[in-house]
# Entry
Amino acid sequence: MALDQQLEKERALREVRTAPPPMYRVVLLNDDYTPMDYVIVVLQHFFAMDREQATVVTLKVHNEGRGICGVYPKDIAATKVAQVTEHARAHQHPLQCIMEVNE
# Structure
């Protein structure tokens, strides 16, 4: 009897599945001061985009007000946001980078 209960508990534990962690979009926001060439460099450096892909995202930021740079787990997304923001401030650009839950 005790063995049956223990086996039942183990079976129940195996059946419990955790949901995958939520993913987060890293988004660049448009401003009137940051040069587009600088945004392209940021996308190439921090998001490993080639020049063509970085240009497409840069034009999306410019024309639509925001552009998605990538989708990452929370810690990586937060690190990318911090790196981009720090780099932009060091180069005296008001470029804003945010993260939001990917739905």
